[in-house]
Design brief:
five-stranded mixed sheet; 2 domains; tRNA threonylcarbamoyladenosine biosynthesis protein TsaB; ATPase_NBD; four-stranded mixed sheet; Gcp-like_dom; Nucleotidyltransferase, domain 5; alpha/beta
């Protein structure tokens, strides 16, 4: 484990390990997101970062570990030099969320490194916040004529905070109108699903181009959340995915924005 950041672990009954750390100015962070058709990986070091971000539908299980190894080699570090592993914990593709969670857990156990689960919706909101937006609605295509939805407002520290909780919902069931100046980000806004007329009018003001989460944005968000003690990294065996939908469907209809 990197000497730049010391982790102290203590056993706490059946809850497993709680991680306490002494923060240093830098961290070696690996971030992965496979919750959609894009395979997104970022390796963030002290003064530079390395990124793999490609449209590779149905290939995540095959390419994720080899591409991570390539980035580690480019950076000249080993996995045991990682201080934190960030992963997209969902919501998103059931299989993609499981792959990201499983790979993050395996690497975390092997490297004795804690994990930071990051919401895919908050990651997208963070990307919008970096463009100067304050009120942000996020929707990812969930198929079955539904979207994964949440609304955020950026606080004084630049962090998107929930104003409407994450949920899976038809667009037609969103019966609240956004505040003036709200921006929309995510693949869910580009679907052909039934949308209330007044919400459709709001969407005409413009939907941001980015449709899916980016691992580098998730790494940046995790750094800020940890620094503000709004996120406590967990032991690998305690990291949990978030699906929002209990029922899993196998449909051939492609997702939007992939």
């Amino acid at each position: 484990m990197s000497a730049k950041l010391s982790f102290y672990a203590a056993r706490y009954g059946k809850l497993g390990f709680l991680f306490f750390w002494v923060k240093s100015p830098t961290m070696n962070i690996l971030s992965i997101d496979t919750t959609a058709d894009i395979c997104s990986i970022a390796l963030v070091l002290e003064s530079k970062h390395f990124v793999f971000h490609e449209l590779r539908p149905r290939e995540h299980a095959k390419i994720l570990l080899p591409e991570i190894e390539k980035l580690l080699q480019l950076a000249g570090i080993r996995a045991d030099a990682l201080d934190l592993i960030v992963f997209g914990r969902g919501p998103g593709s059931f299989t993609g969320v499981r792959i990201a969670t499983g790979v993050a857990q395996g690497l975390g156990l092997a490297a004795q490194c804690p994990l930071a689960p990051i919401s895919t919706l908050q990651s997208l909101a963070w990307s919008a916040a970096q463009l100067g937006h304050r009120d942000i609605w996020v929707a990812l295509d969930a198929r079955m004529s539904e979207v994964y939805f949440a609304a955020y407002r950026v606080n004084a520290q630049g962090i998107p905070e929930l104003t409407m909780a994450e949920r899976v919902t038809p667009l037609a069931d969103i019966d609240v109108l956004p505040e003036a100046g709200t921006v929309f980000i995510g693949s869910g806004w580009s679907t052909d699903y039934e949308t209330p007329a007044r919400l459709s009018e709001c969407l005409q003001q413009g939907v941001l181009e980015q449709k899916l989460p980016h691992a580098l944005a998730s790494a940046q968000l995790a750094q800020v959340l940890v620094a503000e003690t709004l996120l406590v990294p967990v032991a690998a065996e305690l990291a949990q995915p978030v699906y929002l939908r209990n029922q899993v469907t196998w449909t051939q209809k492609p997702k939007i924005g992939t």
